[in-house]
Amino acid sequence: MIHEPNAAFAGLFRAFTSDPASIGGQLTQQMNQRDANAPLLVSTGSDIALFPGSGRAAQIESFRKSTRGFIELTAVSHLPLALAYLARMRELDDTGRRDAPDSGWRRGAMMLAGHAARVRDTNSVALWRDGIAVKSLAGQEAKIAALVDYTCAVSLDMLERAQREPDLMTFEALLDLYFAPRGAHALPVPMNDVMFATFGLALLDIVYRIGSWLRAQTLDWRRAMVLVSGRSGRPTAGATWASNNMCHLIWRASDRTLPPERLFVAPHAPSFSVADLPDAEGLAALEQTYRTLWQNTRASIDVGRALFPGHEGYRFEPTAAENMPPIASPDDRRAMSARLRRIMEDPAQLLSNCVADWIVDQLNDNGNLPERVVIPGFTNVEYPTAS
């Protein structure tokens, strides 16, 4: 039986914050009026919007799936990982039919091989230079095409061999021959390096474009209201500053002038997508929703500081990558593998966090010039022509 609160007590409860006409609601509206001309920056899982304030039109920039090169680079990054998933499928299958012709892992391997073969046939320097044409990767097209060809060739070889020798589709064999091979089995470039490199290349473009866009806005960062809103990546990830790399990206783009306490991560707040934007009226309503959410959160902070003046205050200090293993050098394979393991084992992390802090800091420390960024697994590596 559902309990019905006493009406008098329920009225007192709603009088504080849970009703639009409550004291909390009125305070939030006062704060909205005071800061009506303050810039509001909202980042979602795929887009970022600037609401300049005072009713001026929003400016929106996209990243991830809707941008050039993201799907192409991420697809290649996922190819080696797909083999690991096939090995797990085989491991979980009934022993008696594990290697049957119609087993799930065999069918999955054939499907994956077909896609990889089509990518290899499609891949070319001209495709990356003239078709995909990612500005931040200009001049690297031949090397990227070589990376893609090499990754597809090595993966196809492993998939074809495993069909004949099913025991190759085990984690032990994949580690020894594919992901981190050593000694006599050593590949010129292990697939762990390839995964890290492709993550880095995809992030380079996102960080470069969004960072450039933010700098072009000439924001008053000391007054800016910033929300990282809605779902980002997998459902469990990106709910804190340390696990959501957009926080570090925005902060560095502000040249560290954005007070970290003015950035709130709101994973359950409304989101939006450029692919499905509301009309001007709907966008204005969405802006008010975001402003009210930000101010409602800020109200508690301001009141708390005034209410407890004799006690030590809380000061938020951002920690980029939350103790992600440090990269000692661009050739630090141990750190690369440790970071790849971390993002897969820690459900709070975005997958891109394996390299995001490195790329953000490299770009900012090099004047936002992508050609100066050193990407582990890519910059100092030569991808051989695979036979």
Task: Provide a short characterization of the protein structure.
By secondary structure, this protein is mainly alpha-helical.
- What does the average pLDDT come to? 92
Helix and strand element order: HHEEEHHHHHHEHEHHH
Helical amount: 40-55%
> What structural category characterises the helix and strand content?
mainly alpha
Main β-sheet, spatial strand arrangement = 3-2-1-4-5
Counted beta strands = 5
The amount of beta strand, in percent, is: 5-15%
Shape label? globular
Number of helices: 12
Low-confidence stretches: none
Query: Nearest-angstrom radius of gyration?
Result: 25 Å
Main sheet properties = 5 strands, mixed
Distance between the termini: 71 Å
Walk me through the topology.
Blueprint: H1 7-18, H2 23-34, E1 40-43, E2 47-51, E3 59-62, H3 70-92, H4 104-122, H5 125-132, H6 141-164, H7 171-179, H8 191-216, E4 225-229, H9 245-253, E5 263-266, H10 280-307, H11 333-345, H12 356-365
Parallel strand pairs: 1-4, 4-5
Antiparallel strand pairs: 1-2, 2-3
What report would you give on this structure?
- By secondary structure, this protein is mostly helical.
- 50% of the residues lie in helices and 6% in strands.
- The chain is built from twelve helices and five strands.
- Strands 3-2-1-4-5 form a five-stranded mixed sheet, with helices on one face.
- Strand 4, helix 9 and strand 5 form a beta-alpha-beta unit.
- Helix 4 packs antiparallel against helix 6, helix 8 crosses helix 11 and helix 8 crosses helix 12.
- The radius of gyration is 25 Å and the shape is globular.
- The model has no long low-confidence stretch (mean pLDDT 92).
- It holds the Pfam family DUF5624.
- This is DUF5624 domain-containing protein.
